[in-house]
Design a protein that fits this description.
Length: 615
């Protein structure tokens, strides 16, 4: 069946999209039917830096003089180089605009008046040139009523150019804006803007007026002092990505009502990494992606997906450098305990393996973990075995999800589909990976053997009271479950107990259980420094009695550090107060149709009780 000429040319045009215009013209010699196909090309790509051009200016004159004037120009990529005068470039841009141009990409090594790019049909504009103050004069500004995407890069020798407010006044339909190497104006308003990408820019002191903004990307920017007000003012923000790229973190407070996805990158060479802190006050946050390890504090209801990459560049890190990050890892993990899906890359596993001796003596904070996603090859090395055992100790029923490709390391920035449904993933149960977590049965039987027998009279007496027999000792019935859990998880706890005096041993067991029960059920909101010091003193007494409670002491030290991290500071309190005010305003506007609630306490992202994950 013969193909109509129009359809045939359309297919050829789609193929030539991937060519530069010079190559497309050369295809005319391949077939008689292709002889004039290039004269109707809707996608034009001219790059003067291509070494195959003998005379770039002559080629342009010949091409546009022979081109079919009735054919539309949908896209123009133009890099004229140094040899072409700006007036000539303007002529060809105007030609494309007169043919209903929709997409324009221009790279210039000099300045040019913005009015050159005015167009009623243009929907996408990418412009990289040496912006100068005189090119941004109001009288020379552009008019782009239908422009939806604008990407600008300043090539003026790494000098920030201050953008006037009038720069954005003639862009009523703008949805996506990208800026590189600019100093933003003190105030600008783009009511329809949904995506903003800012790189190597100086942010203004005044808060933006961007009510429809959904996605914000900040890379290597100079933050103002009150950055938390920026995020709080973006009432529709859903996706946020921050790349500090060597800048000091300081105290970055992220307050956002509807934020769902958060990505933070910290460079390996970031200064004062251990002194900076990122505080997230986002009640609806679902996905968090961290590149680098840094101090964090989360106050959000419940995380779904957490991805941690140690670094995103390939170089070998000495083991002594990795060990310096042990405290950062412990603090970051403590803030992510509620996550359901945890994704780690091979570099993170390697870093954790270097500090595994520190980890195995601590309590795993991941008490709500459903899936642990690991890179290929993790099960081929015995080095990672202890790390995986630690990560799963807080959630024994979790499933390991193994990726088949390194491209699958990052979970999607969406709250729709769980990671386990993606292609290239296969799962295996926990029992096939951490077999060493199971306590040897003969050891359990040996420990559970009664220390001393109990008579029938003792049993009858206990049945009349609230005491029951546990390994030959009278203990309160409420403590039996606690003792069984301790025996299963920390079997060495009772091995060194003196067994000479049965009555004293029974008293010690009940005292021990009462103290452990009180400690584990203590709410984090009630914790203070004096209370933690008192628990430390009591644990010392238990150790003197013969109880091996190293696991309790380690957990107490962990809680102390967590408490210090969550100590209230004025900047965070101010951000929380503003966030609560914003929530109240939203609730009043919605008339109760949707409930917004903050976490209410400074420990919302922490475990509810001290003993979460301990037993």
């Amino acid at each position: 069946m013969k193909i109509e000429l129009a359809s045939y040319q359309m297919v050829i045009h789609e193929i030539m999209v991937f060519m530069d215009t010079r190559s497309a013209v050369q295809t005319s010699i391949l077939s008689k039917r292709w002889k004039l196909v290039w004269t109707t090309l809707p996608y034009l790509n001219f790059n003067a830096n291509d070494q195959h051009y003998k005379d770039f200016s002559s080629f342009l004159d010949h091409f546009f003089s022979c081109r079919n004037c009735e054919s539309r120009v949908m896209k123009l990529d133009f890099c004229p180089g140094k040899g072409l005068h700006v007036r000539v470039m303007k002529k060809y841009v105007n030609y494309a605009n007169s043919h209903n141009l929709e997409s324009l990409h221009v790279i210039l090594d000099r300045g040019c008046s913005l009015s050159t790019f005015s167009s009623n049909s243009l929907k996408e504009l990418t412009l990289a040139m040496k912006f100068e103050s005189r090119t941004l004069v109001k009288s020379h500004c552009w008019t782009l009523p239908n422009l939806a995407t604008l990407l600008l890069k300043n090539c003026l020798n790494n000098k920030y150019l201050k953008v006037p407010e009038s720069f954005f006044t003639c862009l009523p339909a703008l949805r996506t804006l990208g800026l590189d190497l600019f100093e933003l104006p003190e105030f600008f308003s783009l009511p329809a803007l949904t995506t903003l990408r800012v790189k190597s820019c100086i942010l203004p002191q005044q808060v933006w007026n961007l009510p429809a903004l959904l996605t914000l990307e900040l890379t290597n920017v100079v933050f103002p002092d009150h950055i938390s007000d920026y995020f709080l003012a973006l009432i529709s923000l859903r996706d946020l990505a921050i790349d500090f790229d060597g800048h000091s973190i300081g105290c970055c407070v992220i307050s956002s009502l509807l934020l769902l996805n958060l990505k933070i990158r910290v460079s390996y060479f970031t200064l004062n990494l251990t002194k900076g802190k990122v505080v997230v006050l986002a009640p609806k946050l679902r996905n968090f992606h961290a590149i680098g390890v840094f101090l964090t504090r989360f106050e959000c209801s419940e995380l779904e997906n957490v991805t941690i990459q140690f670094w995103d560049c390939k170089f070998s890190t000495p083991w002594w450098t990795l060990k310096q990050y042990k405290d950062l890892f412990k603090v970051m993990f403590s803030q992510l305990g509620s996550t359901k899906i945890l994704t780690l890359d091979s570099a993170t596993l390697q870093a954790l393996s270097e500090i595994r001796k520190v980890l195995v003596h601590g309590c795993c904070p991941f008490y709500n973990l459903k899936y642990l996603k690991l890179p290929p090859g993790y099960d081929k090395s015995s080095t990672f075995r202890h790390v995986i055992r630690y990560l799963l100790s807080g959630s024994p029923s979790a499933t390991i999800v193994k990726t088949l490709s390194p491209d699958d390391l990052t979970p999607p920035m969406t709250s729709a589909a769980p990671l386990v449904t993606q292609h290239g993933v296969r799962s295996r149960r926990l029992k096939n990976i951490v077999e060493n977590n199971v306590v040897n049965s003969h050891k359990v039987r040996q420990i559970e053997a009664p220390v001393a027998g109990a008579s029938n009279g003792q049993v009858n007496a206990m049945e009349k009271s609230n005491f029951v027999l546990w390994q030959g000792h009278e203990v309160a019935s409420e403590f039996v479950g606690v003792l069984d859990l301790i025996m299963k998880k920390y079997p060495k706890t009772f091995r060194n107990l003196p067994k000479k005096n049965e009555k004293i041993l029974t008293v010690k067991l009940n005292t021990f259980c009462s103290l452990v029960n009180t400690f584990t059920k203590m709410s984090m909101t009630e914790v203070n420094t004096e209370m933690l010091a008192e628990f430390g003193s009591l644990f010392t007494d238990l150790h003197k009695w013969g109880f091996n409670i190293n696991w309790l002491v380690r957990h107490l030290n962990y809680i102390k550090k967590l408490h210090e991290l969550h100590a209230t500071d004025s900047r965070i309190d101010i951000a929380k107060i503003k966030l609560q005010e914003k929530l109240t305003q939203c609730a009043e506007k919605l008339n109760g149709s949707e409930s917004f609630q903050t976490t209410g306490t400074s420990h919302a992202a922490m475990p509810s009780f001290i003993g979460n994950g301990l037993l």
